[in-house]
Design goal:
CATH architecture of one domain: 7 Propeller
Radius of gyration: 34 Å
Strand content: 35-45%
Structural class: alpha+beta
Shape: globular
Helix content: 10-25%
Distance between the termini: 89 Å
Amino acid sequence: MNMRRLCLLWVALAAGMAAPLAPALDVRQPAAQYRASSWGVASGLPHASISALFQDRDGYLWVGTYQGAARFDGVRFVALSELATGEVPTDMIETIAQTPDGALWFGGRYRGLTRLDGAGRLQRFRADAGLPSDSVTVLRVHPQGGLWLGTGAGLFHARFDGATSELREELPQVVWALSQDRLGRWWAGSENGFWRRERDGWVPASSDPQLLRAHVWSLAFDASGNGYGGFRGGAAITRGDAFVPWALAEPWPSSVVRAVLPEAEGAIWLATAGGGLARVRGDAFERFTRRNGLASDVVWEATMDREGNLWAGTAAGLTRIGDSLVQTYGAAEDLPQGLAWTVVPRRAGGWWLGFNGGGLVAFEHGHRIDLPLPRDAPPGSGVVQTVLDRGDVQWLGTAGGLVRRSADGALEVVPELRGLRIQAVVEGGAGSLLVGTQNGLVRWHQGQVTPIELPGAPRPAISRLRSDGPGRWLVAAADAGVYQLDGDQAQRLSDGEGQPIRDAVRAPDGRVWVAGVGLHVLEGGRMRAIEPINRQLLAQFHAIEFDAQGRLWTSSNAGVLRVELAALARHLDGVDEALDYTLFGEAEGMRSSECNGGTQHPLALADDGAVWVATTEGVVRIGGDALPERAPLPLPRIERVLVDGISHAASPGLELAAGTRQIGIDYTALRLSDAERLRFRYRLLPSLTRWSEVGARRSVAFDALAPGNYRFEVAVSTPTEPWSAAVALDFSVHPHWWQRGDVRLFAVLAMLALAAALPLWRLRALRRRERALEALVRARTHDLELANAALAQAASNDFLTGLPNRRAFAHKLDAAFADAPSSAVAMLDVDHFKAYNDSAGHLAGDECLARFGAELAACAQQFGVDAARIGGEEFAVLFRADAVEQAGAFLDAFVARIRALAIPHPASSCAAVVTFSAGLAVRGGSETRPQELIGRADEALYRAKAAGRNRWQRAD
């Protein structure tokens, strides 16, 4: 080794010892378990195909697309054209770099080079002004100043001074990749293979015939000095000073490798055009594809940010891949698709998993044990909501009744409970079973069914049964409340207080905790809300468990929450007003933060301290000691000020001209790992002294501010982190000449003189003013009456569809019950609407619901019936006594209407267009409460869904 290389080696080693290792993904996790989030053109991306990715020194991610570049803060894309003061031509951005002066450089495929300085000023360099070519393929900071500039005419060392440039040709090849090894040597990948820079110039870095002709897309070196290259044909690796083809035991997922990213512990990520991402360790690789959440399997570019997230630029948008604190088992792991209802420990080891339509699965050590349903399986047995494992026999609570599963896998429905939706099954003592159904609580023993009356609530839906001592149980009875059952005698501990109760359990300290709309504790026969949690998480809570470390776990539609029981006790006793807790959701790796509930076992504790949870996207395992390890909460950044639509830098002491009509302020906080969790608040002193909390919104506008000096302050937090310190921007608004203090003083003196000289005129003016005020009061009173009438209308109508809302529908149903013995109710639910929202976006979802509601209103008017939107994608129709016979015809007509509407549904498993399922219940002689009729309609609706959706069913 010559002296020059020895010196370079020592320099590289010293630099490596001084510089900390960049964060990386946890290579111990299976690639399929990483969490993925994607953004596309609907989120503001200029174009779906991404050709360049770069993180600047401030922490922003810059995204180069086929139609220009945009800056991304983890939530919002801001196009380069919005940040610059000059015109930005649209171009395909191939490469992005940042020089030590802070300027950003953008290389385009067709329109040359663009420089953006910190003040938003643009400079453009084209072939007609001295650039070697208008096609720029690669940009890197040159160690001697300036840039490595790869163009369609070759590789150059470029220095730019104002509008001129100094160019020195380095390599007469079209270079697409450029990287430096740990010895400080530069390597290039061109359209004709690999090259290495020596003292005398560039030399070929491979003798392999395939690589000499290869179109090289990417180059990178790991901490050990190994080099990796991606080319049109596969991947290459260094052996000494040369690249050789890299072959593994199995073929590459795609022959076109566009990017290579070395990671810790010898792992290498490859981005391929058609095979998604591949993580290579040793002689094998794991794939991460669309099935795991990647926006597209065509990946053009990839990079790792400073927080350890992997970003993939694909042909269909941008994907962030990060470590997961949880393991999710769902369709990607060959489990049944979609909704999981229950997780129950198996006596034989592992877990019983119950799915909505996927039946029962035995699961152990991350692998399923196939338990196919017999061909003669009873209807509804594929919807498994709870399991009671007695060893050689399992009792399954299903949508079709209570099912006995014997050791040989045979299924048999208990005849006495056939057709009922079973949500809870527990040992009832003396060989009996306590069975919670959608229509009340019963005891089953050797073919005999004994209904158990719950005071004040005939046949309520039973969500959960909990042991509360020998022979006693706590009963969560939906909107009927919480009961204590002693034998067959029930005592009401609290009513439902207008919300569905999903669970009630007694803690070790004797307190009874309740999962409803929020988390509650029973005190004096009432439910006391845990306000610090419920304010942040306004959601339906499903289940509660207590672990051996004295912590409460609860699942909800906003994720899984963990909180110390001691902290809860201090809050309840008034010692601590605040309450610290940990929330697990999509930011921690759950594929969906929406958990499932209303059944016996939606959440369970394992012997190893882990928590298993049923969600809408499979079953999730959370390690008992898992903690969200995130970067420190960043301070907010004020990005820019928009003055009457014109962008200005957010510089201190900004002075705005008199007559400014609107001032807009954009702000953000840069933590890319979980940017969607960040929440903001602001105030404008001295006008607005109280903080305004605006959630995830990252901009605010003020209209017609009075002249004066102002201070805008903004702070950031998350649901589980306190507010940061505020960041401020001081600015002033200049007055018009007539708003100056001396002019106003002169005007006041003139008015006083005039008032003293003309008292009679002033008196008459005051009388005219009095009459005008009286007229104004009358007009305002009239306007208030009109507004009150509009509010009354809005209180009973759904704002999106214009249909009556749940409250109005309940009034009409109560009236129908009181007026006549005959009536009917149909419950309608848009099929796979959550999947529609996930694929098409929430704006498209709102439009879909609006069109659905319009069709329902038209059909209801045609048949003379009452329709309403109950909530979300749920609708209801009331058939009064004179319209009951038309119910079936109405539903058939409405099915035809929706099919004819033909709203495309790319994510539906039952049709290519939006459809709905419905359940119809006609009032019989046994119903005494409207809720019972609705419950029967709901049962029919579930049967329609279980039968394949896109249809309606009539209740028995």
